[in-house]
Please model this.
Amino acid sequence: MDARTHRCANVDSDHFLLVSRIRARISNSKKFLGKKVKKCDYEKMTLPEKRVECKINLKEHLQELANKSDDILDSRWNKITGAIHKTAEETFGKASKKQPNDWFDKECQEATEVQNKAYVNMQQRSYTRASTDKHREARRKEKQAHKRKKKQYENDQVERREELGQQHQARIFCRDINNLRKDFKPRLTVCKSKNGDIITEKGYILNRWKDHFHELLNSTEQDKGPSIMQDHKDTNEEDSTPRVEVEMTVQKLKNYKTPRTDNIPAELFKYGGNELVKHLHTVINRIWRK
Model:
């Protein structure tokens, strides 16, 4: 182990930063890291003109897929979701990244820079009395500026939430309150095996769901009646699920719900129009026939 102190690192403390280098044996198992996906600005979906534009653009992209024959179901669905993502990005654009500290403005940044320069000067002059007093004064002014800006920002947020409550905008009001109360929770894509073990790899998770639905829909117990899939194979209907039923189910989806791993909110399915319903109807029937 190699440990060293770094005098120039400003961590706002009278202690020096200690950096250690430890040699360890790394496991040979390959780690699969998730891909960070940039979300679209779905707040614009409340605008009627954006809904119409989304419907027109999505229809054009889906009509291009209709001309291409694809026998693989997974590939077909990936192309449909890709068309939805492309349409959302073209219509709504990417959401801007929110700053963690909205109160940290130019004045706070200048006060921090003055404090950092005073800290470096104090180190270079071997902690003389004059340099130490100058750094202490710069640090005091920095803390005062930060506290004043933060308190002003919090008061503005309280007034904004009061206005939302008076305007009966319950959804935005509850979202802001939850952002204050709840901490960040990362999304976990895990599953349990039959033995109760946690499964994290994508391939094993898909196989586990496949086995689960195979056992659920093809049970061999006599008290559960005939198999659903076997009963379907005996029918000769061309379409197992009517298109009207698919359209009604899509329109019953609830708004403002967190999307799943495909990162497609329910509103995009509802505002997709008849062309999207036609493709969903085709995919659902192909799944049901299998």
The two ends are 59 Å apart (CA to CA). The chain has a mean pLDDT of 81.
